[in-house]
């Protein structure tokens, strides 16, 4: 590890996908702090095209766990944040910028969750049109808003370990 390692970098390296949670609820204040961290993400020309939906209803999360691919962890999560984007608010009203900007917010939320002792996961919604339509219908999301992903949250049971994904072979300096 380099001499520049600090608490932020350590948190990034400790971040992991958590699929099993205790039944201890995540407080509203903590959820709002995580969303605040999400809103600290960079966006093209500071457009901030994101929207966030907080779900704490256990029945709704169980339904999502059964209906969404790769989302069984919603069955034990005590909260979830659905990160959405509004292309009309993005730079040049461009879908690509809107998706990138809100995805950066998602990563900030996941890192912030790790930093406060919570676990989380990233579950894709977009670009699968059937899943986007399902989430719009279930959560009454306007047609102009795109639900991008679900972040299940909770206190981890403790089974997961971070993965070392470093690969020197994909780093290129100046001339390929």
What does the model show?
31% of the residues are buried. The longest helix is centred in the middle third of the chain and has 21 residues, at 95-115. The chain is 35% helix and 15% strand. Strands 1, 2, 3, 4 and 5 form a 5-stranded antiparallel sheet that branches. It has a single domain (16-155), classed as 3-Layer(aba) Sandwich (NADH Oxidase). The mean pLDDT is 95. It has 176 residues and is of the alpha+beta class.
At a glance:
The relative contact order is 0.22.
Distance between the termini: 25 Å
Q: Helix and strand succession?
A: HHEHEHEEHE
Mean pLDDT: 95
The strand count comes to 5
Unreliable residue stretches: none
Shape: globular
- Major sheet attributes: 5 strands, antiparallel
The assigned structural class equals: alpha+beta
> Helical amount among residues, as a percent range?
25-40%
**Looking at CATH, which topology would you report?**
NADH Oxidase
Radius of gyration: 17 Å
The helix count comes to 5
How much strand?
5-15%
Fourth-tier CATH superfamily name: NADH Oxidase
CATH architecture: 3-Layer(aba) Sandwich
Describe the SSE topology.
Elements: H1 7-14, H2 28-39, E1 50-55, H3 58-67, E2 79-85, H4 95-115, E3 119-120, E4 123-124, H5 129-139, E5 146-154
Helix pairs in contact: 1-4, 2-4
């Amino acid at each position: 590890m380099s001499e520049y390692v600090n608490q932020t970098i350590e948190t990034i390296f400790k971040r992991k996908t958590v699929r099993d949670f205790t039944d201890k609820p995540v407080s509203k204040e903590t959820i709002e702090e995580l969303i605040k961290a999400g809103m600290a993400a960079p966006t093209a020309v500071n457009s901030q095209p994101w929207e966030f939906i907080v779900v704490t209803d256990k029945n709704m999360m169980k339904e999502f766990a059964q209906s969404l691919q790769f989302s069984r962890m919603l069955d034990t999560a005590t909260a979830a944040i659905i990160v959405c984007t509004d292309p009309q608010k993005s730079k040049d009203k461009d879908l690509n910028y809107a998706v990138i900007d809100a995805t950066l917010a998602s990563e900030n939320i996941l890192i912030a969750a790790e930093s406060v002792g919570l676990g989380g996961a990233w579950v894709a919604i977009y670009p699968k049109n059937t899943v986007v339509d399902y989430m719009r219908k279930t959560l009454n999301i306007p047609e102009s808003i795109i639900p991008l992903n679900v972040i299940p949250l909770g206190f981890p049971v403790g089974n997961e370990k971070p993965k070392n994904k470093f690969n020197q072979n994909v780093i290129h300096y100046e001339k390929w």
